[in-house]
Every structure is written in structure tokens, then in C-alpha cells.
Amino acid sequence: MSRQASLVDPELPLRAYFLSVGAALLLLLLAADWALPAPLPNRLIDSHSALPPIRIHSELKGPEAVIIDTSGFGPVPIPNT
Fold first, then answer.
1. Of 25, 23, 45, 27, which is closest to residue 35 (Cα–Cα)?
2. How far is CA 9 from the centre of its chain?
């Protein structure tokens, strides 16, 4: 019975787990960066500033602009009748 109790830890060692898994993933990332070749230069990314701006025109028009005049708002006196 004491052997089973020693194998089951009541507290989960989450900090140690995250540190070990994080370190392993970081090492894998660094190893992949070292082992894999560098990406080839892409002409679309390099010539981004030479591309003309994209302008999209449509025959479909949206609704008219709504203009709200806020200069006349304020306390309105109640007419005496």
C-alpha cells in the first residue's frame, strides 16, 4: 500500500512540466532552424513597394449619406396653453 501511495502525487508538478516541455519545444525550434535551409527570396515580397495600388470600382452605390444637424438641439421650452 505504501508503494502505491508514493507513486501517486497529490499535487501535479505543472511548473516542472511546462518548463520541461517548453525547453524541449525551444530546442526543437532551434534545431529545425539550424538544420533546415533558409527560405529562398520571394519576388512578390521583395517588390512590394513597386506594385501599383489596388482600386476596386463597383457600379453598385450605397445609400445616401445621412447628415444630422446637432446645432439646433438643446432644452426646448414647453409651450404654455
1. 27
2. 38
